[in-house]
Each structure stands twice: as C-alpha cells, then as structure tokens.
C-alpha cells in the first residue's frame, strides 16, 4: 500500500512539473510575439512564471535585446524535477 501512495505522489509531482514546464514554454513563446498583457490567460501565465523567472534574471543578465534567463530557468526546472522525482523514488524504496 505504501508503494502505491508513493507512486501516486511521484506521478502528481511529475505532472505538476510538466504543467509548469508547458506554462513556462508558453511564456517564452509569448516574449517573441505581440500580445495583450491584460488578457486574463496571459496575465495568469505572467503571474505564475514571473516569480520563478525573476530569480534567473538576477543571475543571468540580458545580452542586448536577448534574455537567456527563461531558457536557463526551463532547464533548471527540468533538473529540479529530476532530483525531486529521484528523491521521492528513493524514499519509496526506504533508502532515504
């Protein structure tokens, strides 16, 4: 029973990371096109991603008009996901 619960937790965490990754990709794509920032869906995307992206904007400066921080933030998110999923996996095996 415990393994099934841990499997479910890992799946939920994995889906949450996947959804956030897609929201981040949409945010990156929005930076390349003209859009209405007051549209509710676009506001939601900005409100959800801005706190995370702000961390990387402090670390990685923009090079002229190009901002690489969202790309680095995306890859960092994937690495964090990998670590979290592995930790949950080892917890389910009783190794941590």
TrEMBL record:
Pfam short name (any one): CCB3_YggT
Keywords (A to Z) from UniProt: Membrane, Transmembrane, Transmembrane helix
Domain of life: Bacteria
A GO CC annotation given for this chain: membrane
InterPro entries membership: CCB3/YggT (IPR003425)
Residues passing through the membrane, by range: 12-33, 71-91
The family this protein is said to belong to: Belongs to the YggT family.
Protein name: YggT family protein
